[in-house]
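User: I'm putting together a teaching handout on how multi-component assemblies are represented. Below are the sequence lines for each component of a complex, exactly as they appear in our records. Could you produce the 3D structure of the whole assembly as structure tokens, so the students can see both representations side by side? Please keep the chain order the same as the input.
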Amino acid sequence: MFKKFIVLNYFIFSILLNLNLAHSIEPDIFVQSTVNRASDTLSGNNTKEERIEELKKIALDTVDIKGIGFYSLGKHRKGMSDEKKKEYYEVFKNYFLNSFSSRLAEYSNPVIEVNSKEKINDNYTIVSSTLAATDKRPAIKIDWRIYTKNPDKPLIRDLIIEGLSLARTQKEEFNSIIQSNDGSLEVLFENLKNFSNK
Amino acid sequence: MIKRFTIILITTLALTVNSYAGSDGELLLKKNDPSNVKDCFERLNRATFAFNQGLDGIVFEPVAKAYRILPSPVRTGISNSLNNLSNLVTVPNNILQGDFKEAGVNSGRFVLNTTVGLLGIFDVAEQMGFSEYEKEDYGQSLGTAGVGPGCYLVLPVLGPSTIRDTAGSVFNLMGGDPWYNVSVKNDTQYFNEKDYYVSRGTAGVDFRAKNIESFDNLEENAMDFYASVKSLYLQDRKQKILNSKGVIDTMDDSDWEEIEDN
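Assistant: Of course. Below is the structure of the complete assembly, with chains in the same order as your input.
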């Protein structure tokens, strides 16, 4: 009886373990599947507006918008009230989704090949890929900073194009706007809202 | 006059940025971090940036678009040829940075591409398995020696720079660029000033033509285009000074760790 119980327990445990492993997604596979999703959207027969809506859905599923938003605020994030942080997140999310989708919507059928991955620590893995050359431009190296704190739900935190970080560029842009307006976050919020309404 | 100006500039730079040789990678990383580069002349820089944007819209972008009409193999040949010419500045800088192996490789690349590759039009060295070509300049050599970037500058027509990188560029005109020496500085029967300025102008157009979409995209999506270009330029220089292709080597992870508690 006891033996049967042990065998049954072992069997259930194995199934649960396998189920758990099955949900864990390798960062390089995650990037390739995200790229394939975006590529399908861009190469389809959808209108530009439909493409933009689909790209926004992909971004919501795969990008750590909250993480990027607060990273972009840098030192200015400190001292913000919870209410202000909530307001910022909403404003930033709209800005990010509009900016992200309109940047990508212009491209048609980009070919991105994932080459390798390098784990930095438990939280981050860098996935390296190449955007294939066209007759107008050479091949472009793109690295993806993947946040892997929850291995079942990896998220994109940065794109590093030929060594240049988009998140870093955005952080310095936000800092410039805040500093040129005497440290006022309100001006940044206004800018983000205006951009989203363009 | 230029010589005197450059000596003063380099001396001032060396004194003000506390230059010393032998700094390690971590210090180089910190010193060249975009957030540590001061924009001492921001108002003037922004005005120059606006001027450059106007000039770009009237001259460079239309010329770059026209250049794109050329068949792709022709553009590749021009680009290869200009890259080959830049070896003349890269090799002395490889030596200045103590990278003698790369100096040898780039010298071989230059000889091979200039002769077999018909004045560099064909990148024969790449076909033969030479390592990927990395340009070096005097600004990078100063950076590698531990000289900090100093203030950020936007130069008319030439675009983003820093005091250190500007000093490096001026050194090209003081004898540091053999191509300038044989075409402009010294009167040789084979080359003249026109050859030098045409090559420099074409290099600018070639670069602009390769980046038309990227520039348009960046400009359209930036809330402060000036700040974005500044950030991209400084990130690029940091990466080049560290001679690193690995993202991990040039990124400061603590940047990201600070948001963990959100």
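A couple of points students might notice: The CA atoms of residues 55 and 104 of chain A lie 8 Å apart. Confidence is low (pLDDT under 50) at residues 13-22 of chain A.
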